[in-house]
Amino acid sequence: MLVRLRCVAALAVAAVIGTASPAYAGGAGCDADIDGSGVVDFPDLLTLLASWGPCPGCPADLDGNGDVDFVDLLSLLAAWDTVCADDFVAMDVVGELLDEYPHFQMVKAFNEVTPILIAIDPHAHPSIVGAAANAYVVASKTAAEWDGDPSLTDVRGAPQVVGFGGPDIQDATVALSGSLSGNGGTEFGIAYDLVVDMDMNGELGPGDFIDGYDADGFRVVRKFTAGGPLTVTTVTYSGGSFLAQRTYYPTDIASMGQLPLVIMSHGNGHQYTWYDYLGEYLASYGFIFMSHQNNTVPGIETASTTTLTNTDYLLGNLGTIAGGVLAGHVQTDRIAWLGHSRGGEGVARAYDRLFDGTYTPSNFTIDDIKLVSSIAPTDFLGTNSANPHGVEYHLLYGSADGDVSGAASCRICQSFSLLERATGFRASTYVQGADHNDFNCCGFNDFTGPASTQIGRPEAQSVAKTAYLALLRHRWDGVDAAMDYITRQYEDIRPTGVQPDTIVDHEYKDSASSIVIDDFQSQTSTSVSSSGGAVAGDVSNRIENRLDDANSSFSWTTADPMNGMTRGRSSDSTRGTVFDWNSDRFLQFSILPAIADWSDRTTLSFRACQGTRHPNTTAVQEDLTFTVTLVDGSGTSSSINIGAYGGGLEEPYQRVGDGSGVGWGNEFEVIRIRLADFLVNGSGLDLSDIEAVRFEFGPSFGSSVGRIGMDDIEVTN
Question: pTM to 2 decimals?
Fold first, then answer.
């Protein structure tokens, strides 16, 4: 009897699924979702058949008459393929297609006219396959606004009917139609939410998908190499010796609230009037920018003093400067210090003096300084004095700098030592083909590098302006999309207006919520990570040491394995690892059980660089790639090649000097991989029980040969 019943049921199901497409319901028909999977499907049917007959209280007794019978079977078939959800699903949906696994990258920022795609992984959400839905692009709303008003209004005028294929995410990818504006005025582009309305009822509800419920879904950004919409007024004045200042502010500031303050300290031989390009730009987006005369000739100590005294003077005289128009409009607890060359070291020293308590300002405190950024800074004072400590810190540097050159033979010219000393959030923007004075208007041309790589002052300043705006909007205003411009590969996204062949490398480290796997600081053994896990592998010539070129030359020699690492001097503590390969090799970091649960984290992050002038580097002379594999406690693994996201580790800038060979200092850049990418297409990886991170190198996994440095392997948000 049961066999005949199953045959009849199978025929009935075949008839149903031959004509049905998924239906979406928050309640009706969902009693038939017996196993609670969210879909009425075969497992529910099998449970019902296994319960056939008298079965009081059984979940399969859909009508509650005490028997599982044909009435229950017909009810289940009537609800077949119904998606049962108590609520909508908030998740990343918007991004771009990739050429290889994970096949799709969820992102937050798009330049205007860039194609925008949406994708939902059928392995995680099988009910979408074959379903029709409406895709809405909606003006971004907060969670409270969505809860209060779930109605959907598409900014394009009407929703887009979409359908999703299968079985994999690359088959369930849809391009959004129409064009979206990125002209948000002084805002960083325009924020949108994306809703896939599965039941097509025009409201966000059960079974729907939303990218952006509790934060912006994504932003479209206009050409922000151009200035903002605000007219700018500039005033030049002096309060006395080394208190000459030029301040830029929105002309209509009287009608505005309080605006953040950016202060610029110039370098030796420079003038405070040489930064109009940056002052006018930031003021046009709603900042107040002040550039001041800097006492750099005696040295860094006097430069730091003029940063401190000029900040005090401006804040203490807001009632009289420019006729008092700034009074009440300066956000005095949100100040950024920027400095160039000796001024770049000077702003770090100024913060160090506040930190040490050796200088007491009158009109501000150390807590009011929210960001310090150095442009090609010197390092005269060294570890204990040229030190940004825990303040948020940024470094801007050009590879063709002929003044603060970054050479192994010039200790005071190694700008990145300041970045390594920063213990809080830190980021860097490294611009190939830019020289020292490209970041002001009028300094002499000190370009040092291959002539074909010179990008020129306007291009270098476009990179600088957009890097600062993205950095400030991300760190001060919490704009997630701005982070894309300072973390994603420049090959993948660059501000519109920056030339397509301009090369920029990013570093980005925010350890506030990180699980550190290995930062190479607390364990000197190559077989134990700083988190205490075992480290194993068969890469060649691996050592761990201070990131410090041990001689005064960039010439490759086995006696100096840290060649090209101009990141610290003997009194600095920054460390990392270096190694190479000529065939398939690996390096694996075991994860201790105490830190194996990554389910509440979003990103695997590390930084790496190619080793300058090493034979493996010069043999290839191109972006270098390799594969990152996660392994869970059951042995399931998932692998991603870093080249999938549009680039790799940039080859060193092809500059000569400081020894034999070609190639300048090692260029670290951050690699950030979404943990969710390792789950795509049903990988089966368990992020709550990660056992190992394995880096795999060689022809089977990326570049055939290579020499790299690596540091700061961590899981973060």
Answer: 0.92
